[in-house]
Amino acid sequence: MRRPNHHSDQERPVEPNVRPNSSQNAFFTPQTAFYGQPNDPALEMERLTSNPFLRVGMKAVEDGMKDITGKTFNALPDEMKKSVSSIRYYFAVDQAYVRKKLILILFPFRSRKWSLDYSADEPVPPRVDTNAPDYYIPLMSAMTYVLIASIVLGTQKRFTPEQLGTHASSVLIWNMIEIGLLSLIFYICNIHSKLRLLDLIAYCGYKYVGMIVVLSSYLITHSLLAYYCSLLYTGISISFFLINCLRLQILPDTSGSQAYNVNRNRRRVYLLLLVTFSQPVFIWCLTRHLIVT
User: Fold this and answer.
1) CB-based contact 251:272 (threshold 8 Å)
2) Looking at the record, which segments are called Disordered (predicted)?
3) CB atoms within 10 A of CB 225
């Protein structure tokens, strides 16, 4: 029997720790010829973004998209152009406007000016006039409401991914129902006012600010008392805000010598009250199912 050689490991030569050169085994490609051998993905991404040919191509694509968008807008009918321009007006906001408008919605009791400012018989953009309606705050507050509602359900271990789509769909459906009913009432009552349909959509969207406050107070305290107190306050503040904004557009002008006749314009008063006091009801309906008693 052959005896094991205890000195074989010591006599075996130690091979140097040489890493194989990947460049020797790599295939030649146009990418390796242009950028070199890839080593670090972050470095390669930096090289890719700093490539002058890529930047020229992206600039050409961007200019082409702007040209196509401009030609498409010019090819639209005049009525559709007016609609697109009108919607663009409601997004002409800045940070100062958003801050002032949120304060005005939640704390409207000290404001003394509610009329809109005009320039050449057209209302000025929201960023110039705090009282002007906008779509930015309703849109962002509606999205925030969906997220906060999901967080509330998560704290109650009732959240599922489908809840995001359910709440987003309910926001859209309830808005369509509300605006549709109010427009139908305007039409049936044959009421002509300064209030436009796009303005009505914006004013009805401000209730989501109150819904965020209500759900946030409950999420922080987990108290029904805090929920109902915040619901009461936001209902009063939003009603006060809307009744001062809408009365100048729904009710007839009383600045003339002829006194305002309540009996003759009773339907306008009722419609103003309907629009105003339906908002706290919607706030309660869209938040009550999230509260655990």
Assistant:
1) yes
2) 1-25
3) 10
Other C-beta atoms lying within 10 Å of the C-beta of residue 23: 9
Contact by Cβ (8 Å): 44, 38: yes
- E strands, the chain, where? 118-119, 122-123
DSSP class of residue 259 equals: P
Q: Answer whether 239's CB lies under 8 Å from 277's CB.
A: yes
36 conformational bin, left if phi > 0, alpha if psi -120 to 50, beta if neither: left
From the list 133, 116, 132, 285, the residue with the least C-alpha distance to 210 is 285
User: Exposure of 74 by Cβ count < 10 A (0-12 exposed, 13-18 middle, 19+ buried)?
Assistant: exposed
Please give the model's pTM, rounded to 2 decimal places. Answer: 0.69
Q: What does the DSSP 8-state code read for residue 75?
A: H
198 touches 87 (CB < 8 A)? yes
Q: What is the pLDDT of residues 144-187, one digit of tens each?
A: 999 999 999 988 888 888 888 888 898 999 999 999 999 998 88
